[in-house]
Design a protein that fits this description.
The chain is an all-alpha fold. The chain contains three helices and no strands. Helix 2 runs antiparallel to helix 3.
Length: 103
């Protein structure tokens, strides 16, 4: 005598449902990735802004090295130009931020 196995048919409601929120998060995932990248860029820009006093100090030390003949005029001018360009960039950004706040 062979015993028949009783099998339960699989019903659709036996599975976990995929909710619309899950689909929405899957669809918006690329945008959230871009938001994370944008936040990282903003954080790095703000970190550079906080370096302004350090850049000014480095420029002063570099000037003192030149005046004490530790470095040549060419070395001084090259490094000073880079430091001044960085400081100008920071100041332009700060000025633009102030204008945006007042607008």
């Amino acid at each position: 005598m062979s015993a028949k196995r009783k099998t339960n048919p699989v019903k659709p409601w036996d599975f976990d449902l995929v909710y619309p929120d899950d689909w929405l998060s899957l669809l918006l995932f690329p945008l959230s990735g871009l938001a994370i990248i944008a936040e990282e860029i903003r954080d790095r820009a703000l970190a550079e802004l906080s370096e302004k006093p350090a850049l000014q100090e480095e420029l002063l030390r570099h000037r003192m090295s030149f005046e004490s003949d530790e470095i040549t005029r060419e070395e001084y001018e090259e490094r000073a130009a880079k430091l001044l360009a960085e400081l100008d960039t920071i100041e332009e950004y700060e000025k633009k931020r102030q204008e945006d706040k007042h607008s």
